[in-house]
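sanity check this record:
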Amino acid sequence: MATVKTIETEVELLKREVGDMKKIHVRLDSAIEKIAEVSSSLHTIMAVHEEKLIRQEEALEDQKRVSGYCSRITQ
């Protein structure tokens, strides 16, 4: 049967391990929050770049159309 001293030692070790786990959980929570922020930022950046690409494609289409009109006029 375990002595009181052994049980006290085991309880103290468990308390220390629980404390260490709390620290790990806090760090994991912080890391998850940072990853979520980065994900949100990347989503915004991607949306902006997609809009820019759409506008560039439209401008290119307009230039091709104008170029076609100019070539018909000069013929």
User: Anything to note?
Assistant: The two ends are 107 Å apart (CA to CA). The chain has one helix and no strands. The chain has a mean pLDDT of 92. Helices lie at 4-74.
